[in-house]
Amino acid sequence: MKDFMLIFIGKEYTDLGLSPEQMQERMGKWFAWNQKMQKEGVVKHGEALHPEVRQISGPNRTVTDLTAAELKEIVGGYYMVKAKDLDHACKIAQDFPDYDLGNTVEVREVLVFDEM
């Protein structure tokens, strides 16, 4: 088994204007997906990310404060999962609960360096 990162990209629930009830329903779907992956033994860990963004760029290391509302899309969280290959990791990502909101999942294999 290899390690893959599922990166969740899209809009924040608050930016989409979801009601508290709709957000609660969404969280239920996230918890159900997490429990399914736990039972299958494929999830290693995952976290949601705060919408506050501080971007560092350029040769002068310019620091810019951004908010999720200022960005077209934001990385909202991630899961690290174990899968036999990229196709298997993509199958795990099929249960991501926010495709209907226009959000996406980027699936990337984790590079392993022998010297680390």
From TrEMBL:
Domain annotation YCII-related: ranges: 11-113
UniProt xrefs under InterPro entries: Dimeric_a/b-barrel, YCII
Annotated transmembrane regions: none
Homology family: Belongs to the YciI family.
Stated name of the protein: YCII-related protein
Species for this entry: Cellulophaga lytica (strain ATCC 23178 / DSM 7489 / JCM 8516 / NBRC 14961 / NCIMB 1423 / VKM B-1433 / Cy l20)
